[in-house]
Design goal:
The chain is mainly α. The chain is built from 4 helices and no strands.
Length: about 160
């Protein structure tokens, strides 16, 4: 049977893995500040999911630089937060009002009154044409493979995110 962890034991373990919290917090805040200052200077608009992902990734990077760089949980957490943001990028999201009927699907009401048209899934959306800057996006007209949305992720504290 698992015993609840004592707060002192948790803090001691985290200190051993990630180093002293003060320098780690200073580095984390400096990294976040540099990223946001640069984004503002460049006119880049970040949505809340992107900002939170950046903050969590910078937090994890600061832990790595301040403590044990060989802790696999830190690296896994970074990939997990990047995946969460990736899965919520606007190109993978679709508002219901933007959905178009699938090819061959009956139009609204063709199957009888009140029968809805099946929604278009994100995999039905054609990829944009590659940009002139050498982007290697899928050719126009090909479906974009889309991972499932809301991929759960458990961080090192056992919190499902």
């Amino acid at each position: 049977m698992n015993q609840p962890q004592n707060l002192e034991n948790v803090l001691a373990d985290r200190g051993q893995q990630y180093g002293d919290f003060g320098p780690q917090a200073m580095l984390s805040q400096a990294l976040k500040g540099m990223v946001y200052q640069h984004a503002q200077f460049m006119g880049v608009q970040l949505n809340p999911v992107q900002r939170e992902g950046i903050e969590m990734i910078m937090h994890k990077i600061a832990r790595i630089a301040n403590g044990n760089p060989d802790n696999p949980d830190s690296w896994l957490d970074i990939s997990g937060y990047a995946r969460i943001v990736h899965d919520r990028l606007p190109c993978f999201m679709m508002r219901p009002e933007d959905a178009q009927p699938q090819a061959g699907a009956p139009a609204q009401g063709e199957n009888g009154p009140g029968e809805p048209v099946p929604p278009v899934t994100p995999t039905d959306v054609a990829a944009p044409a590659p940009e002139a800057n050498g982007d290697t996006a899928a050719p126009a007209g090909e479906a974009i493979p889309v991972p499932p949305d809301h991929t759960p992720f458990v961080d090192t504290l056992g919190i499902v995110r």
